[in-house]
Amino acid sequence: MNRSFLITFLLFWITPLSAARPQPAPFNPSKEKVVIMRTSVLRINALIDQKLAQEKLPYNSPMNDFLFARRVYVDLTGTIPTYEELVNFANDERPRKRTYLVNKLLASEGYVSHTFNYFANLLRIQTKIADKELGAELFMGWLKDSIHQDKPYNRLVYEMVSSSGSIQENPATGYHLRDKDMKLDHVAFMTKIFLAKDIACAQCHDHPSDDWTQKQYYAFASYLGELEIGKGQDLKKQKDRKMMFAEKEKLFHHPRFS
């Protein structure tokens, strides 16, 4: 059994969310992207109009420049703008200054740092001394570089889920190494993060409020059952290096389903 089905299954759900973020200025998207963005905006506006009409609520008044700048800074960099930044933005007379500000922040180190912190928390990255041998710093560096490159979400997830080899050569393996001694828990974390499905209960018993059964949990876990962590033949003299490799025919078994 291999991991190709698991990867395909995950990407089936992830791909719709995989559009790359807007690139830094100058802002010059292709006609196709413009159509996609306009279609998305119209769809969102229609949903908002529908909800406001249902609830009989009035529209909010237009947002002024100061409030817009503050919200965008907090959203994209996790910080509030300085007084000077607010004044400069308010005095900017360009008709598309809000677009330029968004692109400027997306190209900033503040955005990289803020987005990295979000993913580091989501992926439960640890930097304590015990994890140094597993190359947590290499994985963190790879993640930051991916954000710098504006790597699409589906590509980012694919590289983590399908990763193999040494973390020195392929830092994305740090995703699997994080849960090296908790393979069954790793399955629950993976589905919760990438599929928005909390199936942890099914590890011990049939899920009480969802369709997941314990048998399905172990069947799903078997796609990761072939993952092993060990030393490659060329790494005998390098005890601090770890490798992620596949050991075929290694499945998870539970006495209840034997």
UniProtKB/TrEMBL annotation:
Sorted alphabetically, which InterPro entries does this protein's record hold?
DUF1549
Q: Which Pfam families match?
A: PSCyt2
Which interval of the chain is the signal sequence?
Answer: none
Record-annotated DUF1549 domain positions: 44-226
Q: What is this protein called?
A: DUF1549 domain-containing protein
Lineage, opening ranks: unclassified sequences, metagenomes, ecological metagenomes
